[in-house]
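Quick question about two entries, pasted in order.
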Amino acid sequence: MAVEIKIIASKKDLKEFIYFPAELHKDHKNWVPPIYSDEWTFLDPKKNKNLITCETILLLALDGEKVVGRIMGIINNHHNELHHLKTARFFYLECYNDDAISHALIGYVENWAREKGMNRMIGPFGFSDKDPQGFMIEGYEHMPVIATTYNFPYMVDLVEKEGYQKEIDCVSFKLPIPQEVPELYNKILVRILKNNDLHLLEFKSKLRMKKYIVPLFRLINETYKDLYGFVPLDEKEMHQFANRYLMILDPAFVKVVVSGTDEIIAFIIAMPDMNEGIIKAKGKLFPFGFIKILRSAKTTKQLNLLLGAVKEEYRGVGFDALLGSKIIESAKKCKIELIDTHLILENNFKMRAEVEKLGGVIYKRYRIFQKNIS
């Protein structure tokens, strides 16, 4: 195959970049389309400041007039400065099963990164750990959840042929909803709330929940600072995330612990799985796609964990158990049978232990790759 690499230079090019995976995966049973309005927002410099603060390149691979692959190159200067690195990332890598395509795409991004003074490449990895990360290497029989990738197995082979090796894995646990919340968790709940000037907040409306969304992201900045690939959010980004996700959050699955002064001590956010609705809507919210998506969230049997955090000085006393038990209670009321824990770093042994105590088992694994390009 004679592969031509084209730099994205027009709205038409960008449209081909965004919609190429739909063609690639059209017969792929478990693939779920993205929400296309989110894709356009993510790749719009007016709406995603990362496209201004980071160095990026978007590429298409062409065989004649036909798009046969795509990739994004990213250099997150802020993260590199914080951690004294010279690392670039590849992201959005999708292509047909052909060494020539993957070699052309990856090679182009590597050369671009070297010209920018970088000596290492990781990927798939976006601007931060809040973007989908890694290629799935186990669990292909299961559908992805929000903000995770779903790739053909051959993508792993193509990347490894380019000299990439494991950087780190993330795992997702499948956690069946227990018939009863363990008695130990109930005792922890009573002890924590009785012996401290703390209050557990549960919500019935998005209006009441709204004022806590930005403070939640401030706690994330505080508690996630040492996690792999994390980049702190500024206030503008916090408000953007709040506006983006508030519409689809179900108040029943947001639990917050606050002090007597209304300071957030801990929280957990989960979301009913919406895959069925997204597939029916073909990734389009309008004119009626959002109805299909919201309807599927009401009938799903799966709950997906999204975010959670506990202030450092309150760790180790049972807040994770408290919040977990409350999420399980709400899930049972909605007849949900299964929780997907979302991505957990393989070396986050404390969180893994908590999930395993409740009977969780690993059922998906994602790998971030790395290569020295100096």
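Here is the second entry:
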Amino acid sequence: MESIDNKILDKIKKAKRGSLFYTEDFLSFSNYKAVSKALERLVNEKKVCRVARGIFSILEQDPYLGEILPTAEKIAESIRKRDKARIIPTGVLALNKLGLSSQVPMNLVYHTDGSARTVKVGNRSIVFKKTSPKNLAVIGNISGIVIQALKEIGKDNVTDDEIQTVLNHLKNEEQYRLEHDIKLAPEWIRVIMRKALTK
């Protein structure tokens, strides 16, 4: 009979290198405790890498850099898919994504309608914060981030350059998404976003 360890390893190896797996992905092989123990053994044998608590991968290999850990953003996106949740970058992360800040946030903070939690990835953290449905009702990828970025900067601190950067990004948003999302923004942000609407 094939051991749980081998079954888990086979499943991970069939996926593309760098794919992320969760303990729950292997519960068809045995119960939670046995699967956790098997994963523990595979990590100790260096056959599988523990990327974060309860998240595992066989890492991508770079000819020069060796093993490459998945980015915190990739892990956040993977958790979003697993939980079938919505997430939106907030704070410094939103600013960084729009090029409004060169500061790489140590903590990636996302609004979510999934469960609130913090996931440690190396020396960084991914923080999922519960938020009101209104914050997640946006349908545009760009406009949703723009609203969060402008909230982070604040009404009285936003500069003309920052507004221009935001408008340049919003040109790439589909009009119907932008029109929908403007209604969800605070009034001062609506005024800025409306400038991106093509008449």
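Reply: The mean pLDDT is 94. The two ends are 68 Å apart (CA to CA). Hope that helps.
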